[in-house]
Amino acid sequence: METNCYYHQFLQNSDDGPSPQREVTEAEMFAFLALTLQMGHTVQGRLEDYWTKMEQLCCPSYGHTMSRARYYHILRLLHFTDNNSNGVDRTDDTLWKIRDLFEIIRTNFSKFYNRTKHLAVDEVIVKFKGRILFK
């Protein structure tokens, strides 16, 4: 819903005239998220390599699911929160743009994942090169 709202705001501010792209449907958004998650498993060098026709790099499921132009269109206009919302205090919350999505994901993941008493996250498993505040 917010992606389509942002798309209409973008068209109003654009000088190029109407765009031939249609609004994003719920099924397309699920396909977009599925492709984005799948990209973590089949790692390519560049984003356009997922839709390449070269035999060495070919991943046909991406092209069958969604065209590259449509994926780029959704990626460019992806929004989860209305930019014009005045009720949000943006100074305290650094995740204010994705807060609603974050809460949905957090609650759904907590339904299906039960932590055990002995849980360790190794730096080999999760690559991180930044500074750690709690060190």
A few lines on this structure:
This protein is an all-alpha fold.
Notes on the structure:
This protein has 135 residues and is mainly alpha-helical. The protein has a domain at 2-83. Helices cover 41% and strands 0% of the residues. It has five helices and no strands. It is globular, with a radius of gyration of 19 Å. It starts with a helix and ends in a 23-residue tail after the last helix. The mean pLDDT is 79.
State the end-to-end CA separation. Answer: 41 Å
**What proportion strand?**
under 5%
Q: Give me the number of helical elements.
A: 5
Radius of gyration over C-alpha positions, nearest whole angstrom: 19 Å
Low-confidence stretches: none
- What is the helix content? 40-55%
Mean pLDDT, to the nearest integer, reads: 79
Tally of extended strands? 0
Largest sheet entry: none
SSE pattern, N- to C-terminal: HHHHH
**Alpha-beta content class:** mainly alpha
- Principal-axes shape call: globular
Features:
135 residues, mainly alpha, globular
How are the secondary structure elements laid out?
Elements: H1 2-13, H2 26-38, H3 60-65, H4 68-77, H5 99-112
